[in-house]
Amino acid sequence: MNNQNLIIYDFKILFDILNEIENHLSFKLLNVSKKEYSKLQLDKLHNYLIISKKKIVNSENQIFINNHPLKLIKLIEIINVNFIKKKFKQQSEVELGLYKLNINSRQMFNKNKILGLTEKEIDIIIFLKNSKEPVTISKLQTEVWGHHSKLETHTVETHIYRLRKKINDTFENDEFIKSSKSGYFIK
């Protein structure tokens, strides 16, 4: 089912044009006047873009059409590219309780602090976050590093130690990665 919504803000002629070819579009259309916009519950429309002739103050996910005329095929391309960018951005940000992890920029952040991470540190955090139970050192070796050997190595412990230290130094949180007899975990 299509869950992309294009909100056409105060641009009736554009709505009429797109409405004629709606069956061929990969998104739903919503025609919204200036009056109706204030009543619109955007938080219930998770995947939306707003298209308008001018910028709407305090609103996200906007496309402005100020160059007229514009070929219809080009307009649809612009809309589809913006939906793809939005989806890519949503998929690249992972919620981690008080923090967010941006996989693309390799940064962990909260409201006012940013921590740069390595690719391996991101792999560790994501693996621990996605695990329903504590993860053993050998499981991390196998799944994150790809080591299948039973050789004694302290790679995992060293990486976890350094990652905990970085997080504590930046966010003053020494409880982000926890450990138990069963292994490491993130709440």
Task: Tag the structure with descriptive keywords.
187 residues; alpha/beta; 6 helices
Let me know the largest β-sheet: 4 strands, parallel
Structural class: alpha/beta
Q: Report the sheet-strand fraction.
A: 15-25%
Percentage of residues in helical conformation: 25-40%
> What series of H and E elements makes up the topology?
EHEHEEHEEEEHHHEE
Round the Cα radius of gyration to an integer and report it: 23 Å
Low-confidence parts = none
Mean of pLDDT: 89
Number of strands: 10
Inertia-based shape = elongated
Q: How far is the first residue's CA from the last residue's CA?
A: 33 Å
Largest sheet strand order: 2-1-3-4
Q: Quickly count the helices.
A: 6
Q: Could you walk me through the main structural features you see in this protein, from its secondary elements to its overall organization?
A:
With 187 residues, this protein is α/β, with parallel strands linked by helices. The protein has six helices and ten strands. The chain has helices spanning 12-20, 34-39, 72-92, 119-130, 137-145, 155-171; strands at residues 5-9, 28-32, 48-52, 62-64, 93-96, 99-102, 107-109, 114-116, 177-180, 183-186. The strands form three sheets. It has a four-stranded parallel beta sheet with strand order 2-1-3-4. Helix 4 crosses helix 5. It is elongated. The model has no long low-confidence stretch (mean pLDDT 89).
